[in-house]
Sequence to fold (145 residues):
Amino acid sequence: MAFLSSDIGRLFRKRFAASAQHFGVTGPQWRMLAAILREPGTNQGALANWLEVEPITAGRMIDRLEKMELVERRHDPSDRRCWCLHLTAKGEDLVRHMAPLAQQAINEAVSGLSDEDHALLLALLERVRSNLSNDATPEANLIHG
Fold:
C-alpha cells in the first residue's frame, strides 16, 4: 500500500510538473504556489516542511517566485524575524489558469470510477492520512519511551 500510494503521488507530481512547464514554473514551484494559496500568510518553515525540503531550499524557491512577481513576503506582525508569504495578483491569476490542468489530471486519474467509488476512495484516503498523522509515531515512541 505504501509503495502504491507513493507511486501515485510520483505520477501526479510528474503530470503536474509537465503541465506547469507551459506556464513557466516548475512542479515544485506550482506546489508552493498552491500551498500559499491554500494557507495565505504561511511562513517559509511551514512550506519547507509541507514540501519536504530544507528551509534554505524553500527560501531559494521563494526568492525565484518573488523575482517572478508571483509571491510577496510581508512582515509577520507577531514576530519580526518571520515573513508571511502571500500570492501577488499575478500569482493568483497564474494559479487560477493552472487549476483546470490539475483538475484534468485528477479527472483522468479517477476515470471509470462511479461517483460513489470516488467518494469512498476520498474517505478511505482521508482515514489513512488521519491514521498516519497520529502523534504516536514510532519516532515519537523512540524519543519518549
Q: What stands out?
A: The longest strand covers residues 79-87. DSSP finds seven helices and two strands in the chain.
